[in-house]
Each structure stands twice: as structure tokens, then as C-alpha cells.
């Protein structure tokens, strides 16, 4: 079995590389949507298969109770949530983990373009259930 720490690492490495390029060119200080659009360009240029603002259902006891849009769903495997804030807080990590659990995705990235240096955190869904 593949070590969870390294599962999907080639995909997440490519995503992080694209985010680094965007931050290198734009720096910090823009609204989240600007980084989202720039990252879309980088993904396309680097042949990263993605869906932007991908709408996904939220279930409670097997009942759909609404939907939520993930900033990017990459290769139908990795959730990417973007922020453009000064500092990531625990609530942002909790939100990203909640989305992984709600979507039953194994791996996600939380990327913050708002600080002087790009911040990113790779997240693992401990409650993931393979189909």
C-alpha cells in the first residue's frame, strides 16, 4: 500500500509549482479571484486537468442538503482551496478538511496567496472511503 504521505504527490507537486509561479509574478495583495484566474492559466499551460469552481453536493445521512463549490478539483482527486489573506487561521484548515470529508476526497491543498511568501498546506482526509 502506498504511504498516505506520498499519495497523489505528483499531482500536488504540480499544483504547488503552478501556485509558486503565480505568486512569483503577481505577489500578494490581489483578491482571491485574480489568483484563481491566474492559476487557471498556469494549470492550462502545464496540462493539469482541472475543473474551476466545481460544484459538489453536500450530504447529511445520505440526503443531499446543499452544494458547495470547491475552487478547483484537480484530476478528479485533489481539492484546491485558495485564500488571499494575511494569515491562515485554524478555521481555514477546518473548512478545507470539512470539504474533503463532505466530498469524500482523499487529498486537498489549502493555498494562501495573501502573505509575502506563498503558503500552502497539504491535507489528508482521515475519513476517506475508497469506492
From TrEMBL:
It holds the Pfam family PDDEXK_3. This is GxxExxY protein. InterPro entries: GxxExxY (IPR026350).
Amino acid at each position: 500500500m502506498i504511504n498516505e504521505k506520498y499519495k497523489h504527490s505528483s499531482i500536488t507537486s504540480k499544483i504547488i509549482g503552478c501556485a509558486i509561479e503565480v505568486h512569483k509574478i503577481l505577489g500578494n495583495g490581489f483578491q482571491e479571484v485574480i489568483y484563481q484566474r491566474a492559476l487557471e492559466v498556469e494549470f492550462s499551460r502545464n496540462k493539469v486537468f482541472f475543473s474551476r469552481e466545481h460544484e459538489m453536493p453536500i450530504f447529511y445521512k445520505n440526503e443531499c442538503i446543499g452544494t458547495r463549490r470547491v475552487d478547483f478539483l484537480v484530476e478528479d482527486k485533489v481539492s484546491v482551496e485558495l485564500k488571499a489573506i494575511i494569515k491562515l487561521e485554524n478555521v481555514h484548515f477546518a473548512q478545507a478538511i470539512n470539504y474533503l470529508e463532505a466530498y469524500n476526497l482523499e487529498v486537498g491543498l489549502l493555498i494562501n496567496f495573501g502573505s509575502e511568501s506563498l503558503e500552502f498546506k497539504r491535507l489528508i482526509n482521515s475519513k476517506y472511503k475508497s469506492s
